[in-house]
Automatic annotation (TrEMBL):
Domain of life from the UniProt record: Bacteria
InterPro entries: Phytyl_CoA_dOase-like
Pfam families xrefs: PhyH
Nucleus is among the record's keywords: no
Name of the protein described by the UniProt record: Phytanoyl-CoA dioxygenase
Gene3D superfamilies: q2cbj1_9rhob like domain
A GO MF label: iron ion binding
Keyword Oxidoreductase applies: yes
Record's keyword terms, sorted: Dioxygenase, Oxidoreductase
Length: 262
């Protein structure tokens, strides 16, 4: 598993190494981007926010049933947490995050696409089948990436993210759209658990095949997903255009003026 062993440095050579790893493997797990104390605070905020808004919906994919093998599972989520608590807005523009985001995109300009908070409940937290993010919001130049902030520890038993290293090099794959885009025939032995600690952030490309297992532990798994892009990369569809704050510049500037489009 490719990781950065210490909290990220802003030194250009350090960020270049990170970007090289990301280019080669399709992902990089950055250790300790947030302190344990910060992660603990964000975990508490996340659980309080989801409980307070109490949307009551379950975003578990229909396609997850094959992974769950008939087991009843559940999932809690929230779009656009930054519109309900300023702490998430500050995190979006925190240089510790944006420096790495800019490095892996290889551009000084970083634009928000959307965010999602996920809480996998203990004992039955829903899995995600293998998939790429690409079919959900394709872009012309494919300079779109994800960052998953871990607000608590995520061992394999908690249903951590699993990634197929190097899978991004094959580009777009044909997905089964039934029950949400997924890759039913992808070899599961190619998927490597990305076990993480509170404060770690996992960056990966939108071509990288990934999945996650069921949370069978006795503790919830709490993460925040941030999808971001190069603002010079035009979207090919208008999917996800309803995401609040889409087009917000997190670092640098938008050379196109195409604010909030798709």
């Amino acid at each position: 598993m490719t990781t950065l062993s210490t909290a990220p440095s802003t030194a250009p050579e350090h960020l270049d190494t990170l970007a090289d790893t990301y280019d080669e493997q399709g992902y990089v797990l950055v250790k300790g981007l947030l302190s344990k104390e910060e992660a603990t605070e964000y975990r508490a905020r996340s659980h309080e926010l989801i409980a307070r808004l109490d949307r009551g919906d379950d975003p578990t994919w229909d396609a997850a049933s094959d992974v769950a093998m008939g087991r009843q599972t559940s999932l809690q989520h929230l779009h656009d947490a930054q519109f309900y608590d300023a702490a998430y807005t500050r995190l979006l523009t925190d240089p510790r995050f944006t420096d790495v985001a800019a490095a892996v995109l290889r551009t000084p300009n970083v634009q928000l696409h959307h965010t999602k908070m996920f809480i996998k409940p203990p004992e039955n937290g829903s899995p995600f089948p293998p998939h790429q993010d690409y079919p959900f919001f394709p872009h012309k130049n494919h300079k779109v990436a994800a960052a998953i902030f871990h607000f608590d520890d995520a061992p394999d038993a908690k249903g951590c993210v699993r990634i197929a290293p190097g899978s991004h090099k094959e580009g777009p794959r044909e997905h089964d759209p039934q029950g949400s885009f997924h890759l039913p025939d992808f070899p599961t032995d190619q998927l490597v658990p990305m076990e993480a600690e509170a404060g770690d952030v996992l960056f990966f490309t939108y071509f990288t095949v990934h999945s996650s297992g069921i949370n069978v532990s006795d503790e919830a798994r709490t993460t925040w997903l941030v999808q971001f892009r190069d603002p010079a990369d035009p979207p090919m569809t208008d999917q996800h255009k309803e995401s609040l704050g889409q087009g917000l510049i997190l670092a640098g500037s938008d050379p196109t003026g195409r604010v909030g489009q798709a």
